[in-house]
Amino acid sequence: MRLFVGPLFVVSWFFFFLSPSCSIQPVYGAQHPPLDSRLTKNFIKDRSKAGALPMKSKKASSFHEFARSTSDAWDIGDDEDEDFSSSSSSLQTLNSKVAKATAAQVLENHSKLRVKPERAQSTLGDMPTNCKVIKSSSEAQLSRTSEEACVRTPLQKQQSLPLRPVIPLVARISDQNASGAPPMTVREKTRLEKFRQLLSSHNTDLDELRKCSWPGVPREVRPVTWRLLSGYLPANSERRKLTLQRKREEYFGFIQQYYDSRNEEHHQDTYRQIHIDIPRTNPLIPLFQQPLVQEIFERILFIWAIRHPASGYVQGINDLVTPFFVVFLSEHVEEDVENFDVTNLSQDVLRSIEADSFWCMSKLLDGIQDNYTFAQPGIQKKVKALEELVSRIDEQVHNHFRKYEVEYLQFAFRWMNNLLMRELPLRCTIRLWDTYQSEPEGFSHFHLYVCAAFLIKWRKEILDEEDFQGLLMLLQNLPTIHWGNEEIGLLLAEAYRLKYMFADAPNHYRR
Questions:
Q1: CA 298 from chain center: how many Å?
Q2: Is the Cβ–Cβ distance between 469 and 404 less than 8 Å?
Q3: What is the mean pLDDT of the chain?
Q4: In this predicted model, which residue has the larger pLDDT, 135 or 492?
Q5: Where does the record locate the signal sequence feature (predicted)?
């Protein structure tokens, strides 16, 4: 469970132990950032001078220390019911008067950072010991009158930290222009017409289609374009209908033949892990919490796992279904898909979406299957290549990681395992995959340069962090919630530049 040590949190912590009915919920993701690091550092200095709180202020200096005090920001809900009995047992002898006095001292130290000295003494002198605590520095900026209200109102014991965030409107899947670009420009209309001409020709020129798809595929033609680029559909337009019919029947033949075996003992572990992971797939998007959608995902993942015994199911593969599912669903839905009730679709349409998602995901995984075999050697090699690449691109960032003992595997494993899906909004992943499918070995090779460009994008924030814990928290909670096409376009352009410089010149990043 992640705990941010700050003045206000310490006060809440004391009152937690004073009231057994209180509970603390963890704060997740970049939408609820930690308290201002400058306030935290100043508080630690003041606390050490005053000797007010006999608590260790040492920051995590290694991965093992860090892992004991924090968890993956994506694992929403895993730690909400964590038992605090072991922590509370060491503080059961805490006297309530001492706790209140210490809390008041913490408030006084913290207020000196926020209030002018002459005002601080008059305000705190009249402040009752029971006063509502503002939960974060950002909340204080949003409510200018909160300090005056604090003087007048009695203490409401803090029940919990803020609840998990609700997905903001800007993060809609369908909002492909989150950076403010108009919905459809003249240039985009021209591009759409070019796609339609390519797709309607007797034999689609796949090289030309890849070239057109690199800067993004229009939503209207994305489903058929993805089927073609993934190798699921043939270039010959006359063969497509029969191919779709045959492949969809083949998939449901697998369902009929294998799906009942999920109850057999030798498949129990696989099915149980899939069943656990499905609710965690994009937990903030209502579409993926619908029982019917979760049943579809379970079937897709289980059939893939038993047909690929060399790897079987590995956590993270569940994420790779979602872009295909959303794209093929959008073919039948005009409104925003993230809130669409799939029970409104016919059975035949749902079966088509399920089968197409299975086959396209299978095509993707065929190119990166060594990422998911025993010990995941593909990921190990890619993380090592990323480390070597960054050491040549930006030696200062690389040395900063070495100084604070940050290993690339500690943050980049997830980037490779999930293809940056947990670092980006889903709409950005869909745009990114337009390029991946048009790029030769996009998922297996070009992704490395995208990860390098993505890391260097945050170089200023990385260099500002001066301890192991701060670096890991930053790299696990990068603020991309408002990203759209413009940001992804710049990221891909930088990745292409890096590939052009280094892909054909391996000696450039060898020491």
A1: 21
A2: no
A3: 76
A4: 492
A5: 1-23
Identify whether the C-beta of residue 462 lies closer than 8 Å to the C-beta of residue 397.
yes
Query: Quick one: tokens of 475?
Result: 């790299």
The percent of the chain in helix, strand and coil, each rounded to the nearest 5, is: 65, 0, 35
CA end-to-end distance (rounded Å), the chain: 39
Q: Which domains does the chain have, with CATH numbers?
A: 7-152 (no CATH), 230-366 (no CATH), 377-509 (1.10.472.80)
- CB burial of 433-455 (b: ≥16 within 10 Å; e: otherwise) equals bbbbbbbeebbbbbbbbbbbbbb
Amino acid at 116: K
pLDDT tens per residue, range 29-83: 333 334 344 444 444 444 444 444 444 444 555 556 655 655 444 444 444 444 4
Tokens of 293: 């959608």
Distances in Å between the Cα of 349 and the Cα atoms of 307, 331, 342 are 24, 10, 10
Summarize pLDDT for 218-273 with one digit per residue, the tens.
999 999 999 999 999 999 999 999 999 999 999 999 999 999 988 888 888 999 99
